[in-house]
Predict the structure.
Amino acid sequence: MRYDCEQCRSEVPARHGDELSHLAAARLAAHLAGCASCRAYAARYATAIEAARAWRPALTAARKEAILDRVSARGEPVRGRGGQRWFVAAVSLPTAAALVVLAFVLFVVARPGPEVATTPPPVALDAPREGLGARATHDPRAGAGAGAAHSQTSPAPADRIAPSTAEPIARPAERRPAVVHGARRAARPVEGVAREGARSPLPAPAAEAAPSPAPDAPAPSSATSLYAEAERALAEARPAGAARILEELIERAPDSAEAQAARLELGRLYAAALGHPARAVVHLTAFVTREREPGARGAARRLLCRLLPAAERDGSCWPGLAAAGHPE
Amino acid sequence: MTTATDRELVERFTRHGDDAAFEELYRRHVDRVHRVVARILGPRGDVEDAVQEIFVQVHRSLLRFRGGSELTTWLHRLAVNVTTSALRQRLREPPPPAPGEPDPGPGEQLEAREEVLALYRALDELPEHNRIAFVLFELEGMPLEELAEATGVPLQAAAARLRRARIAIARALGRGPAAGEHAAVPEEKP
């Protein structure tokens, strides 16, 4: 009977899982003994289930690390949240409003006086080079949410950088290290960074010695603007585009501080978002070789250690460190 | 690898922002989560994206994990939610048909035998809830009570989903390659 076959087949999984009562199991066995098609079905079901159970999809170690990097980049930092719940609960709307007013008052009080306003704006040197006109005072790298993080005049500690859209790839523990900011801050202005020399007491001989371009000359693609462009690409979740720009930056201004920051960023991008560990190793090695600041060098070296095959590691993980003159 | 319990690691991460504790939790559970997700989505699923999404949610919402259940059960619930969304998304935007072998993502090892592919073709015909119930119970060996908890439904509802899935799979596999054989062999009456 057709009904018996259908009922039999619906009970085959239960039989396979040993869930049937003695009576039902006996009835099923009796049907299978006399029905070749149901026997074939039961065998096919058992084969499929056993094969599916034996199928054990696995992640490689590199893929696991790549996922972890992306997870850490996208996850919100939870530092101190447990201890701050009371604070969050206590801050009501009026309190928040009072804080806003207080911040505004402090901002007004802290504004520079008129004597500062009479000094020539520092943008004068930069404007013709960048061709940005009214935007010249605005650091192109300082987005709305990342101004503090990327401003060269007021750098923030790395662990305070908000997980803004300006840096969607880096992991919280390794967000752009202060050393990179430091390196970029202290670096010689390579191209188009006369702003740095004008705003800070540090001399900027290269930029100042350079003849001013004609006002109508096309704006050169500076290391600074390339870096800003790469950051915008990252903010727009275009890691491949960002990588191309950073590669171009390194090629054009290999000795610039931006290029050094680009090497670290490329190492992270290739290690995580772009899934190209070999390229990551190249850029991170270049970064570690050039970097003088121990913290950033250590962070890059840790990432290198994770990327290098075990056979290529030694006691200090990266064999090139000693040769580069930076024993760890 | 530390000997700290999951609960201790959760505590360290949520109270002190200890990223190493989160990484340890991740390394401890990622294989199981990946296997569950891969089995639910099948050889053609975008498994890595789903695994990433699950752990992003873990990272963001671990504070809400009250410890009322095991972390693994909580992870299963997240996996069910994320894969349900992925399956619905797949219905709206079916992936381009790949000729021959499945096209796994880069670095993934999702090679599967023909029997497995046949089973997943049958699973593709099921509603996502029934599919998940079938995979978790039949392939992952999850007890019915745990299945109910992971899918957030009462025990009877979980059992009903499983029953419907089994019947549908039976029909789908019955139409498989052996269907011709079924027609050729005259049925014997029991």
The mean pLDDT of chain A is 62.
